[in-house]
Amino acid sequence: MLTGAGISAESGLATFRDADGLWEGHHPEDVATPEAFDADPALVQRFYDERRRALPRVQPNAAHRALARLEETLGDDLFLVTQNIDDLHERGGSTRVHHMHGSLVTAWCVACDRRTPWSGDLLDQPPCPGCGTSALRPDVVWFGEMPYGMDDIHRALFGCELFVSIGTSGVVYPAAGFVDYALAGGSRTLELNLERAANSDFHEHRQGPASELVPRWVDEVLAG
Ligand code: APR
To answer: Which atom of ligand 1 is nearest the CA belonging to 168?
Structure first.
């Protein structure tokens, strides 16, 4: 199962590619690259500090909670990979979440490679609790960097019974290619999204808001 920004939209977090998906006039590609960080670290740190500050102001919605219910029943048979860097899946009750694009609630020290739970800002260059160096960056995967856990994700995808994609526009790779990977392994595929995604080779599409579609679909699965 793959989730994207659409599952958190109804919690109040802006998606990336909708009309309101800009941050002070910046496209995500302009702030989410190593080159952008080298050129203007303060701008990039501020961008992620703002997103981290927004987390306590939002709550998981019915879609996050429904996937947690599904995990309660399926356990390890549910492999949940999210492109989201928010913590709403976890706060909705999911315990096995693979954050392929990293997470806002950890900071990564590029000097000692340690990852530290983080809730404050990084703009003021706080020291790493591990090595004391002021070399913390957001623990997020930028364009041009390798997403986390790709081996585990490919193992889970290939030959899975069902691949479900929720709230993602299907334009950012490698996640946009997961449906093809699942199809190649003979899996059934389902898309739950407000609109048909760019990578629309799914067996089945259901269109609507995640907070309605996901609980309804989970109820169907749990009813057998
Ligand atoms: N319910 C379901 N789907 C929704 C909802 C909703 N309430 N609101 C919006 N959507 C859909 C949109 O129609 C769109 O298809 O969610 C999708 C969001 O797409 P994007 O904004 O492109 O987000 P995502 O696909 O997660 O982006 C992928 O791009 O910038 C990078 O690293 C960033 O992880 C991100 C990646």
So the answer is: 25
In short, whether 191's Cβ falls inside 6 Å of ligand 1 is no
Report the candidate in 89, 99, 15, 81 with the shortest Cα–Cα distance to residue 51.
Answer: 15
Q: How many angstroms separate the CA atoms of 20 and 184, rounded? A: 35
d(CA 209, CA 124) in angstroms, rounded, equals 38
Task: Please give the single-letter amino acid code of residue 218.
Answer: V
- To which residue do tokens 């093809």 refer? 180
What does the pLDDT look like over 3-13, one tens digit per residue?
Answer: 999 999 999 99
- Determine contact, residues 185/153, Cβ cutoff 8 Å: no
Contact in structure between 99 and 129 (CB atoms under 8 Å): no
The predicted-structure confidence for 31-51, as pLDDT tens digits, reads as follows 899 999 999 999 999 999 999
Ligand 1 centre and the CA of 180: distance in Å? 19
Is any atom of ligand 1 closer than 6 Å to the C-beta of 21? Answer: yes
CA–centroid distance, 135 to ligand 1, in Å, is 30
